[in-house]
Amino acid sequence: MAGMMIDFSMGRSFVTAFLRMTFFLNMPKFSIVIPTKNEEVHLPALLSTIKSQTYRDFEVIVADAFSTDKTREIARAFGAQVVDGGMPGPGRNRGAEVARGDIIIFLDADVRLPSSKYLEDCWHEMEYKKLALASCKVIPLSSKPIDRALHEAYNAYALATEKIRPHAPGFCILVRRRVHQSINGFDEEVVIAEDHDYVQRAARLGHKFGVLRSHPIAVSVRRLDKDGRLSIALKYVFVEMRMMTSGSVKGDMPFNYEMGGESQEHENTRTREQ
Fold it and tell me: Is 27-273 assigned to CATH 3.90.550.10?
């Protein structure tokens, strides 16, 4: 009987070890998490740039806030895992909860990876610099001088504060999954600038942050077009001052904010009106 118990115990240990080995062997290097809401217009272009990557060891997770357009169908057709999302912070958390990769990359649906070597080069730079989390410089998907100037101003500020008070736009954050878990993800009580709060909390706990120089991330200017460039700039200055003096913004949203894109029907209507 004792021998049988030993054999059973050894067998169970073998099965457990085998399952663990299989799990880790099946883990991708990257989990790309994209929060969405009605993004059928913009999501395909992002997915196309993801598909073109030379580094193929990744999974894509779309955390969708109950879109009424074809966002979910587009994501599934690409092979992405689709989970229920919400506002950007909670949506990113829901996506990260099912992520299996060593590194989670949070992207928004209206960004583009500017190079087919984006994943490969960013990973190598993170490893070389021993970074726990990172972001990139930004470039606008616009040829307007004012848009380039605004994004360069952000880049200059992000680089200047990189070591003392890190900033990272939520549309491009790379983070080791263990670090995301150690800070309990995005604070879902923070209603604006939850991305800056996220990287600053991680940095305060000793996790090394850096702005990657390998490639910038290309981002849409649709919010600038919708809300106005001066209005957006003033909002960012207000929130930065508020965070520096009173901490992260919780409670009621101080500004009007609508997540996500337009449905294709609305996009077509706007196009016809122009």
Answer: yes
